[in-house]
Amino acid sequence: MIQLFHLFKKYGPHVALDDVNLRIAKGEFIFVTGPSGAGKTTLLRLIFGAEKPDRGYILINSINLTRISRSKMDLLRRKIGFVFQDFKLLPKRTVFENVAIALEVTGEPSRWIRKRTRQTLELVGLEDKEKVYPLSLSGGEQQRVAIARAIVKGPVILLADEPTGNLDPDLTREIMALFRTIHQNGTTVVIATHSRDLLEDVPFRTILLQRGRLCGDTCA
Ligand SMILES: Nc1ncnc2c1ncn2[C@@H]1O[C@H](COP(=O)(O)OP(=O)(O)O)[C@@H](O)[C@H]1O
Ligand SMILES: [Mg+2]
User: Fold this and answer.
1) Selecting from 1.10.10.10, 3.40.50.300, 3.40.718.10, 3.40.630.30, what CATH number does the domain 1-79+156-220 have?
2) Is the pTM of this model over 0.90?
3) N or C: less crowded end of the chain, CB within 10 Å?
4) How many CB atoms neighbour CB 73 within 10 A?
5) Mean pLDDT of 128-143
6) Is residue 220 pLDDT above 70, yes or no?
7) Is the CB of 39 under 6 A from ligand 1?
8) Cβ–Cβ < 8 Å for 80, 65
């Protein structure tokens, strides 16, 4: 489903990715780990098509991301959800609107959008918060809104960047349980984290990045 071939990415003198090769199968749940600055965020942004590699290429369902047109990229991106490290919620929009906004680009009828948004808020356990504004929510609740927005379109791939970075251990467990549910519903899930706590006893594939190089893979 996701194939990375000899990816290189530099920001000025900083090497962010250094010859990364990786295959992620459909339906996998995978952690991208490594210390701060290792290249985790860069890797997710490249898979999302938010940036292009300096060298190498990326296939998503056999489509070469480094070659496709802008409009095809927009279509493909509808199938990929991204949970940003800083949530990126709109403070002047309600919880409902923050999630529904992701569906407005699809051109579906508003009745369908309402229904789908409600279903998704229910899945993340926020059905009673739809009229509330994000800033009045706790960190864990804001994270759920960000996850709802990322999955409302029913993406085949969900990318999450340090999704439990600011949460306490109980909330971390809850959010991880939510990712497992999403995974069980058939989505390929890729989570970037520098947190070792998150990884204790996880039964999932874990890859390790260090200074932009892939230097560990529990599946390799
Ligand atoms: N927009 C940017 N401009 C300059 N340097 C960047 C930028 N994004 C990332 N980097 C550098 O690339 C390297 C990898 O960063 P990043 O992918 O954010 O790592 P991680 O998410 O593992 O902490 C770091 O050295 C970082 O400073
Ligand atoms: Mg990062």
Assistant:
1) 3.40.50.300
2) yes
3) C
4) 14
5) 96
6) no
7) yes
8) no
